[in-house]
Structure formats: structure tokens, C-alpha cells
């Protein structure tokens, strides 16, 4: 009987301690949101590949996260818009809608960009750099802001 009580106490205290250490504090969450939201983020990488726009490109892939949990931006050809949800450092994007223009020189990048956005499961913000990551923490997209 005594062993069962000790085991139950140890299990309960382990869950309690783990829950407390894995929960981000609210000050950190507010700081992360202020770094993420209401900024124009311009694409620098898709996966491990650096993105460099063509010299004649007028529409560079970009994204904005509003404080109203709406997302907007460009895939390099079309405007995109939708919603996102946050829980700590975890992010869910979608569903997304977009305009349907044809851009002969940027359709490939637009497709890659949209496919990458569908893989996003989290984010990391460091000063003027935003990384959107997949479920394993691998960089899917990376941006910079002025």
C-alpha cells in the first residue's frame, strides 16, 4: 500500500513539474507575438534554398500576420489571404484563398511557396528574421523584415 502511494505521488509530481516547465510564460508569448504580428515579412529562403528575386520581379513572396489572426501576402504572383492560429510556438495556417492570375515567370515559385505554407506547424522569431518550421522543427520558409 505504501509503495502504491509513493508511486502515485511521484507520477503526479512528475506530470506537474513537466507541465510547468513546458508551458511558455505569458510575457514571452506576448513578446513573440509583437515580433511576429503586423509586419511585412519578405521571403529569403524556401527550405534550404535561398530565394533571390529576378531583377525585373515586381511581386516578391511576402506575408503579414495580423493581430486579428488573419494572414495576407503574396506568393510571388497572386495575393493570398486566410487565417492562422497560434498556441505557444505552434502555428496552424489555413485555409488560404488566393487570386488566380497567370504569371509566366513566377508560377513555379508560387507553387513551391504555397506548398511550403501548407507544411507550417510552428514559428521562430529572432529580431528581424522569421522562420516557419514543419512538425519536426525544420525550416520550411524564412523571411526578413526591414
Give an overview in words:
There is one protein chain. By secondary structure, the chain is an alpha+beta fold. It has a single domain (25-144), classed as Lipocalin. It is built from 3 helices and 9 strands. The protein has helices at residues 2-22, 26-36, 107-117; strands at 41-46, 49-50, 62-65, 70-74, 79-87, 90-98, 122-126, 129-133, 139-144. The longest helix is centred in the N-terminal third of the chain and has 21 residues, at 2-22. It is globular. Residues 36-143 form the DUF306 domain. This is META domain-containing protein.
Short key terms for the protein model shown above:
29% helix, single chain, Lipocalin, 3 helices, alpha+beta, globular
Concise synopsis of the structure shown:
Residues 36-143 form the DUF306 domain. With 146 residues, this protein is α+β, with helices and mostly antiparallel strands.
Mean pLDDT: 83
What count of helical segments does DSSP give? 3
Task: Determine Rg (CA atoms, Å).
Answer: 20 Å
By secondary-structure content and strand pairing, the structural class works out as alpha+beta
So, CATH architecture?
Beta Barrel
- Our estimate of the beta-strand percent is 25-35%
How many domains, as an integer? 1
Give the N-to-C terminal Cα separation: 64 Å
Q: Into which percent range does the helicity of residues fall?
A: 25-40%
The total strand number stands at: 9
Q: Assign an overall shape.
A: globular
In terms of quaternary structure, the protein is single chain
Describe the main β-sheet briefly: 9 strands, antiparallel
Low-pLDDT parts are 12-23
Can you identify the CATH class?
Mainly Beta
* Series of H and E elements: HHEEEEEEHEEE
Instruction: Write the CATH fold name.
Output: Lipocalin
Keywords: Signal
Domain DUF306: 36-143
InterPro entries: DUF306_Meta_HslJ, HslJ-like_sf, Hsp_HslJ-like
Signal peptide: 1-19
